[in-house]
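Table 4 source record.
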Amino acid sequence: MNNKKIFFASDQHLGAPTPELSFPREKKFVQWLDTIKEEAEAIFLLGDLFDFWFEYKTVVPKGFVRVLGKLAEIRDSGIPIYFFTGNHDLWMHDYFEKELNIPVYHRPQEFTFSGKHFLIGHGDGLGPGDKGYKRMKKVFTNPFSKWLFRWLHPDVGVRLAQYLSVKNKLISGDSDVKFLGEENEWLVQYSKRKLESKHYDYFIFGHRHLPMQIKVGENATYINLGDWVGYFTYGVFDGETFELKEYKQI
């Protein structure tokens, strides 16, 4: 890794509850990207960068110029960036790939860094819980549902989706911001189940909005990255150890 580090962040929810109120958080996140770019080997964004995102064939949501520009700058400098869709931006397709040269993943992926095995994803709909969202996700990802939504004028569709995103707790995650106990944390249970068939050193997820670092095996750790709404936390792997850190704006 040439003494460089791999950075992980999730759940910025830019645009919520309103574009005006989320603007300081966007500036803070862009500043963080600026501070890490010199020592970054790679950057992983684990979903819900936007509180809502839908790609029409010729239209994408208005706004987020600063963060998109910063991602383009970092990617153009040669630093790999990997994006995982979350439950708020699950309707993302190829815009990031075509415009920013950033691959987009819709399911957890395996990576190996410095001999350590990682399973990385947003975390929504995994494990034994999250049943209400799992039902909702089936509706949202149904091709017919997406086809119907695409027929709405963007001014109507985006406004409707933004309203539902903020108001609906199943989508917004407001019902999931309390620690449930290790035995009830469904991503912990998911990680333990995955270890039954294959070893991973680290399970890295977002979605839960809580910074967590929990041992799930003798040499395996589940990490939840927290968010950029209340915690401003991120993960960093230096080739030997993984740390959760809080970004304090300069």
